[in-house]
Each structure stands twice: as structure tokens, then as C-alpha cells.
Amino acid sequence: MQSVQFEAPGTVEQAVALLAGATGDARVLAGGTDLLVQLRSHMVDPALVVDIKHIEETRTLVRNADGSYTIGSAVAGAEAHEHDRFAAEWPGVMESWDLIGSTQIQGRASLGGNLCNASPAADSVPAMIAAGMTANIAGPGGRRTVPVEDIPVAPGRTSLANGEFVVSFNLPARPAGGGDAYLRLIPRTEMDIAVVGCGVALVLDAGGIVTSARVSLGAVAPTVLLVEDAARAIVGTRLDDDALAALDAACQAACSPINDKRGTIVYRTQVAGVLARRAARIAAERAGSR
Amino acid sequence: MTGEKTEFKWVGTRAIRPDGHDKVTGRAKFGSDFALPGMLQGRVLRSPHAHARIRSIDTSAAEALPGVKGVITSADFADQPAELAAAGEALVNYRDMVRNVMAREKVLYDGHAVAAVAATSAEIAEAALELISVDYEVLDHVIDVDLAMEPGAPILDEELEPAGMEASGPTNIAKRVDFDLGDVEEGFAKAEVVLERSYTTAAVHQGYIEPHAAVASVSEDGQAQIWCCTQGQFMVRAYTARLCGMETSQIRVTPSEIGGGFGGKTVVYLEPLATALSRKTGRPVKMIMSREEVFRASGPTSAGSMTYRIGATRNGVITAFEGTIRLEAGAFPGSPVQPACMCAVAPYDIKNVRLTGYDVVVNRPKVAAYRAPGAPISAFGAESIIDELAKELGFDPLQLRLKNAAKQGTKAAYGPTFRRIGYEETVEQAIASEHYSAPLGPNQGRGVASGFWFNIGGESAATVNINEDGTAVVVSGNPDIGGSRASLALMAAEELGIDYTKVRPIIGDTSSVGYNFLTGGSRVTFATGLAVVEAARDAVRQMCERAAKIWEVESDGVIWRDGHAVPASSNVGDFEPLSLADIAAQSPKTGGPICGHNAQNVQGAGPGFATHICDVEVDPETGRVTILRYTAVQDVGRAIHPSYVEGQIQGGAVQGIGWALNEEYIYNERGQLENPGFLDYRIPVASDLPMIETVVVEVPNDRHPYGVRGVGEVPIVPPMAAVANAIENATGVRMEHLPMSPPRLLAALDAARLPEAAE
Predict the structure, then answer these.
(1) Residues of A in contact with B680 (CB under 8 A)
(2) Are residues A269 and A155 in the same domain?
(3) Are residues A100 and A55 in the same domain?
(4) This prediction's pTM
(5) A279 touches B at CB < 8 Å
(6) Which of B413, B380, B377, B385 is nearest to B308 (CA)?
(7) Among B548, B549, B571, B550, which Cα is nearest to B558's?
(8) Is the CB of B743 less than 8 angstroms away from the CB of A263?
(9) How many CB atoms are located within 10 Å of the residue B463 CB?
(10) CA B742, B748, B751, B756 torsion-angle sign
(11) Interchain pair A266, B743: CB under 8 A
């Protein structure tokens, strides 16, 4: 192992300068719940580690005047629970965040880290995509905002350019009649990685008809998927059995998983449809209860 | 022996364990906590191949790296003749052992040690490993037991000559064993219902939380000290002496606290390497396995494959049982196929039984003992087919078991005739339990299964030293895995008649207590407990003699009562009772120190039986199984410390549930282990399980002063079949292969649904 340069800048500009100026592999440290494990198991051997937790913007979760949220990329799941409205307004995003690791990990695990680790099985990512979240990226060329689904491009790889990092996320205001949910399948009840994950966010009108929906699947393809056909299958319906069957079929059709130690192609595909049906029902219940 | 007393002051209480405070505060020293000045760090180079011939090893570049103080390979260990030695409940062969700790001609599994380095830091040692060049000729490998037995399978050892059978050429079959009772043909002729089924179980790791760790220090005069986490310091001494060419008197082994073993620490991996490196470098050497190394190179227990045939009359009498059991031994012979055969139907009184077992080598780590070695594997099949038989006959599954239950006088298929045993009581209590008649909801099912384990005695030595202030120290020689120190101290306090808190139990190193066979076979509270009781009685006898001396009476005129020497009768004289403290205080004047001793090869272990009830809920769309409720009923003889008895029962049940549902080794096509960590080797986590309810049955073992049987192994025997039977009850689908993981169960559910859909 080579020696690692460790920096903990206090501003976005300093962080960008450090990352852009790195000569070898540079890694951003948010909660560190993936990075430290990778360092210790020699999966990565960076020349530079930049801890972004001293940057105010990465550490704050605020509800804006219009009801939208700005969530710092290094805010931990346990901190999000301390917000008085967030978990109630976006229960799907919150429950996906809650599923990352143990209680100890919850004190550190962040949405930014979970997204930029670029695992197709990341729990929070399908929920973020379903909720329509976007990421605020800072880099040598300034700032840009992109949809969350555009960031992972392959297992372990993101679309972030050299010197860029995710500073925060935008979560839209919860629409009237909106509800979201995230479900994952693991063989155990915790301390495991999703075999399949599914996030659903939808809006019901006063008559209980789905007026819009976003469906996202994790662990069934090289990256987390936004499945537009699945959304189309339920928009305009009351989530009756036929609509749910169509949702199931659309999700299965979108899957291109692999056989590995965590699941088979057949199993993942089949369960993706099951979880989508169940998550849609939960999201609708939540939407209807408001 | 038993029946002397049934009311106790200390036995049967839930006293605080003597090692409790240090464990909850973090003060307790485990294997990796030990350090010495000037200590080097040792690391092992492991094979990336499942099967390869080693053409050459070049260590020169590693030796030249600054900070590297020594490198060893198989050339540093003399070859050993094939000679068997006892290791827990199995026998080991020194020729194989020397090859397992350091590969010689071939590497036989992914993770097999090929060289080791000692350096001034772990980083340097790891860098040095990468500088060792090994020229391998990669060979075809075989991992599955059934494939390994087929003609044309890759052969691990061309010289292997199977025991108990003829072989027509090179083979992976190391041994065939046969057990016969009665006449199975006749038994099947009497049967009105005959079932034949095949089952497989996956290899599973013991999953102890503490990785193997050892520090060895060899002095200039050739004296060695070893500190390590092990189930048997005397075992480490014997094996290390043999492999390193030393005398046992030259080696002193001190066991650390142990973070779980379950049988997996009844063998050596690091100790001979650390000793050889220390001897070579002249410095203490510390070696710790990573979790990945634990999975790739230690344990597991065998995967198994079995075919059973069972016959019964319509009125529920099992008339015959026949089976073939094939177990993987790993890279070297020695699977627990013999106990697997012996335990398969031991809970039952079946007049005609024939079982054949095969011990088969495959390209996996050499198996190590794991809780009731072999029994859970054979019982999974046996308790599954008996469940099917009950359904076929229209019997309640527990009533069928009760009707065929082994009892006092039953001749077991493996040889002995049972003395008083408590199997029927476990079934009766299960039937009577509230759990057994509790209602079930949709997608829920209930399963039951029984299990047997022999339990063992063996060599134990103990000393009870009476201190000058009226306290006592109990010195024994078995690492405390399951609360045995507390149990030993309770029995000593009971015998001495003093407060439990005045008895301090310690575990001696190999040079400060007589020989103790390792902690295994559920033997410690029984066998070492017996030695402690006898040693305490020896101390009591001495104290009675001292009292006689003080009173100037004949020594047989003094007896021991409630911690005091008292005159045996009024004829002896009128003396005030002398307390243990009084006698201890006067000991310098009455003959010197009072030290009770006992050493023996303890016989008379009492067989243990258990019956478990399991409720599951199956998600029909995902194949996920939730354990809703679980009750374990077990005959323990006598619970010396009920909390640790219950803890053993709960732990065994939980490990069995893991074996049933998710645990398995996943190999890639090159024979490399894909899941060497707790993330993807899925033992149950706490939130997966309900509280395991225990029902402790006490049918005392008449060969122990307090009636103790073994406790720790039986509870892992029933769970896999109990879960499978519950799943069948919930879904109608019979799972014959382990693990019953969500993908496998969903596939089975779908396969069962297809014909329905077609109708």
C-alpha cells in the first residue's frame, strides 16, 4: 500500500481543486462506509482521499419554502430522521436509506456515497430515482445539475468527470396525492445486499387513478434502472390486478441481471416484478392516506 | 453414582459466570490480543488454484525484501508417516496434517497454504507474499461428492487406498463403513409402506466470530511457548511438537479466551507455522487469519448426499431402514461419515437397519468437526423421510416418532444397548407443549424433527486448591466455550459447601495442569466436571483428615457437611464443626497445603436426544422463509447452569436454521470460493429469528454424580429437517436439498405450481 494523502477541505472550491489536481487515483470520502471497507480489503489504493464532511453544504438537509428538499450529499441516514417532516413526506426514500447497513453504519451512510459507489444494488438509488431526485455536481467547470439516474454508468463507474463530486441533491416537493415506497429482497432481514430492489413513486387523483408514476429497479442490470414502460403500465389505472400484472411484466422485461452469488437471472427477474407490484400498492396506500 | 442428592445449593442456579465481567468490558484476552516485545508478523501465501501440482517455489525475492526475517515452505517440515491421532470426534493422519498446514506435492484447494513469511510489519509480510513465485501445473478439480465418486473424476491422491472396500484403480473414496442390525430384507418384507428418497446437504462453516490467531516464541534453548485461540491446548502441543520435530515438554501452550469454535478449533493451522517461523527467525511470531482465510482454509463440515429407504406397517411400526451416505472429507480423508451413519436413526427402535457410508476426498478445505459432526447431515434426510412416512400413514409426526422411540434397553443400530435415556420424554413434552397445538395462518406451516448425539467422556485432570483464607481455585484444562467454568465452579462449590463466589475456576496451560482432551464432544461439563467433583472430594477427604488430626480422632470419624467437618456420630466426641476456612487456616500445622487432585479417562457419557418444533411462513412469490416460532426440547441429564444450557440449545438451533436456509459455499468454475465473508456466506442475524424457546428435560445420566449429559451438540441435529418439514407443511413442497434459499424454494414452488396451472 502506498501512502495516502488525506485532505478535509472546508469549501466546495477547495475540494474541487484538490480532486482536479490529484496525480493518482483520488477518492471522495463522505460517510466512508464503502470506501473504508474497500481500502482495508485492498480493492482500491488511492493517492488522495478528500473528506467532504467539513463542507457545510454537504452536511445540511433543508426543506425549502416550496416544499422541496435540498439534501447534502454527506448527510447520514440517522440525521435525516431528525428532520421533522422529511421521513413522513418521503417514506420511500427514507426507508431505502434506512436499509443501508446496521445501526452503526446508519450514523454515517450517505446518499452521495451510496450513489457514487455506483453499485447496481445500492438501496437508496432506486428510491431516489423514483422520487425524481437530481444531483448538484461541482467541478472545475463550475456547477451542473443532472438526474440521479444519469450518474452511475457501470458497476463502480459514474459519469462524473475528473475533479467533480456531488455536493447535494434536490428532492421535489411531494405532490398532492403523492406516495412512494421502496422494497428490496434479501435472504436475511438485514446486514445484506439487495438481490433485487424496487422504488415506486406515484400520484393518485381524487378518484384513485394514477396520474403519474416513476418505477426504478436495482440489482437487475449493470446500473439502477428507471423503467418507463413500468410507469406507463400503471398510469391511468386504479392499480387493479391487470395493471399490476402489466407492471410486473414491464419490470421483468426491463431486467438484464447476471447469475452470481447473490441470485440467479431467473430469480432476480421474477422477483423484480413481485416487488414492483408490492411497492406500487404501498405507494398508493400512502398516497391515498393523505 | 447419581441420586445421592436431588436438592442443591449451587447446582442448577444461574450464577454470574466467572469470565463475565472481563468479557463485557472488553478486558478478556482473545487470540489476536496477545503481543510480545520484538514480535514479527507472519502471513501465509495461499493457493489460488483448487488443484495443482507444485513444480517449484522460489522465495529468494521475498527473503531479500528489507524487513523480511524468514520464509518457510513445506521444506521446513519433515514429512510424516501415515499415523492416526485423535482430534475431537475424528481421527487425523499426520501425513495429511503436515500437507494440510503446508502444501507439499500439490495444492488441493483454493486457499491451501504454500508458504509463510515473518516480517517486521504486516505490510512488509504481505508485500513479501507477492514476491514468492510458485510454478503450478493446474489440474482438473472436483468439488461435489457425487461427481468425485464417478469414474473418470479428477483424482486428488493417486496413492489413496480406500479402507473397508476394494478399489479397481485410483479413487477419491477414502473409506467405506457399514452398519448392520437385524435383517433389512426381512424388515422390508414385513413393511406395508416403503418410501425411497434422496437428499443432499451443503458444506457449511462453523462460523465462529473469532478468526484463528497464534503467537509462538521459540527460545535459543529450543523451548517454545504458544498463545492461541483453540479448543485444546494439549492438542496444539501434541500436533505442533509432532510437525515441528519437538518434544511435548519443550512446548507450553496457553489458550486464550475463545470467540467460538463449534469444533472448528480442534485442529492446527497457524500454530506449527508460527513455531517454525519463530524457530527460524529467533523472534516471537504472531499470525492471524483474515475472515477470508478462515473461509478459504479452515473448517468446514462436509457436504453430504444420501439415499434412504424406509419401510413400515400401516399401524406405524418402522420395520426397516436402509441407506447410503456419502460425505465430503475435503482435501484429505476424514469426513464424519461414521457418526453420520451411527446417528441417522439412533432415536428409533428399528429392528432392521443397514447403513453404508463413504468418505470422499474433494478439492475443498479439509473438514473439521462441527457440532455433532455428521449427525445433522444424516438426520436431515432421516427426519425428512420419517415425516413423509407419517403423512403417508396418516400419523401425527410426533406420535409416529413416539411409537418407534428408542428407550432403555433398545439396541441401537450402531451397537450399544441404551441405558436410561430421555428421548421419549422429549417427544412427550413436545406433544404437550402449547406451541404444538397453536393455530397457524395462511402460508404458514409447522415441522418437527428429532436428533441424537452420543456425547463423549475422555481424559480429564483437575486440581482443587484450598487457599489459606478459605477460598478455592479450580484448575482444569479445557478452553471454556459454552460457560464451562461457571458449571465447574458450581459443582465445586456444591461439593466443598462454600459460596460459589469463593471458588475461582481457571484454565491451566499445558504445563500447569494434567492432560485434558480437548473441548469437544459435549464432554467438558460431564467429564472434566466429573474430574473436578472428584478433585473436590479429594480435598474434602484431606480436610476431614485434618479435622481428625485437630480433634485427635480417627479420620473415619469425621464427615463433611455443608462446608464443615463434623463428627460422624456422637460416639466420636463432641466437637464444634470446623469450617473449610478454619481448616485452611490451620493447614500449615496439620500437614501443609490442601490440594485435591483427580485425573482419569472418564467413561459413561450419557446420550443426548432432542425434539424440535418449528413454525415457518413462506412467501409464495419470493420463496423467502420466515421462522415464526421455534421450540427446542432436549434431555440434558441435569442442567448445572440452566442459562448456559439454554444458550447452547438456542445456539445450536440457530446454527441449524442457518444451515437449513442460506448457508453454502459458492465456487466458481475454477474451484475458487466466491463468498469468503459473512456478507455472502449468510449465517442468520438476530433479526432473522424469534427467541428460541427451550424446554429442558432432565433424565439424569446415572454415570455422573450430578446426572450430567452433554448439551452442546444435539441441538444442531434436528433443525434442518424441522425447517424442511415446516416448509412442506406450509406449501406442500418437499425440499430435499439444502440450503432452502429463496431462489431454490421459489423454483420448487413454481415447479409444483406448473402442473396446477396446466390443469
Answers:
(1) 193, 261-262
(2) no
(3) yes
(4) 0.96
(5) no
(6) B385
(7) B548
(8) yes
(9) 23
(10) negative
(11) yes
Q: What is the pLDDT of residues B447-506, one digit of tens each?
A: 999 999 999 999 999 999 999 999 999 999 999 998 999 999 999 999 999 999 999 999
- Indicate the DSSP class of residue B73: -
Each residue's pLDDT tens digit, A135-185 = 999 999 999 999 999 999 999 999 999 999 999 999 999 999 999 999 999
Kindly indicate the confidence band of residue B1, based on its pLDDT and cuts at 50, 70 and 90.
Answer: very low
Query: All 3 cell numbers of residue B155?
Result: 483424482
Please check whether residues A149 and A209 belong to one and the same domain.
Answer: no
Residues from chain B that touch A264, judged by Cβ atoms under 8 A, are: 743
Q: Which of A188, A192, A196, A260 to mutate to test the interface with B (most CBs of B within 10 A)?
A: A188
- How many Cα atoms occupy the beta-carbon half-sphere of B386 within 13 Å? 37
Chain B residues in contact with A219 (beta carbon < 8 A)? none
Q: Which residue of A has its CA nearest to B741?
A: A187
**What residues in B contact A185, CB-CB < 8 Å?**
622, 624, 742
Q: How confident is the model at residue A2 (pLDDT cuts 50, 70, 90)?
A: low
How far apart (Å, rounded) are the C-alpha atoms in residues A34 and B49?
29
Of the pLDDT bands very low, low, confident and very high (cuts 50, 70, 90), residue B3 is very low
Q: What is the CATH number of the domain that holds A257?
A: 3.30.390.50
Q: Is B328 helix (H, G, I), strand (E, B) or coil?
A: strand
A10 and A112, same structural domain? yes
Q: Name B518's bridge partners.
A: none
Q: What does the block give as the cell for B440?
A: 397457524
All structural domains of chain B, each given as residue ranges with its CATH number in brackets, are 20-27+457-602 (3.30.365.10), 34-139+210-259+265-297 (3.90.1170.50), 304-448+607-758 (3.30.365.10)
What residue in A sits closest to B662 (Cα-Cα)? Answer: A187
3-class SS of residue B353: strand
In one-letter notation, the amino acid at residue B496 is L
Q: Where are the beta strands (DSSP E) in chain A?
A: 5-7, 26-29, 48-51, 61-63, 69-72, 134-139, 142-147, 152-154, 157-158, 165-171, 178-185, 196-204, 210-218, 225-226
| Strand ranges across the sheet with B224-228 | B68-72, B113-119, B40-46, B285-288, B213-218, B224-228, B251-255
The Cα–Cα gap between A180 and A176 comes to 12
The answer to whether residue A127 is domain-embedded is no
Q: Are residues A225 and A160 part of one domain? A: no
A140 and A50 within one domain: yes
According to DSSP, the residues that pair with B37 across neighbouring strands are none
Name the domain count of chain A.
2
For residue A125, being part of any structural domain is answered with no
Which chain B positions have a beta carbon within 8 Å of A271's beta carbon? 621-622, 746
Contact B622 A193 (CB under 8 A): no
Q: pLDDT at position A3, please? A: 82
What type of residue is A231?
A
Helix axes B642-661, B719-731, angle to 10 degrees: 50
Which of B618, B622, B740 to mutate to test binding with chain A, by most A CBs within 10 Å of its CB?
Answer: B622
The rounded distance, in Å, linking the Cα atoms of B727 and B735 is 8
ipTM of this predicted structure: 0.94
Look at residue A126 and tell me if it is in a domain: no
* Model pLDDT, residue B758: 56
Mutation pick from A191, A258, A265 vs chain B, by most beta carbons of B within 10 Å, is A191
Residue A147 sits in the same domain as residue A237: no
Q: Is B392 a catalytic residue?
A: no
Domain that holds residue A159: 5-119+134-171
CATH of the domain at A166: 3.30.465.10
What is d(CA B595, CA B540) in angstroms, rounded to the nearest whole number? Answer: 9
**A18 and A156 share a domain?**
yes
Does A129 fall in a domain? Answer: no
Q: Indicate the residue of A185, A187, A270 with minimum beta-carbon distance to B662.
A: A187
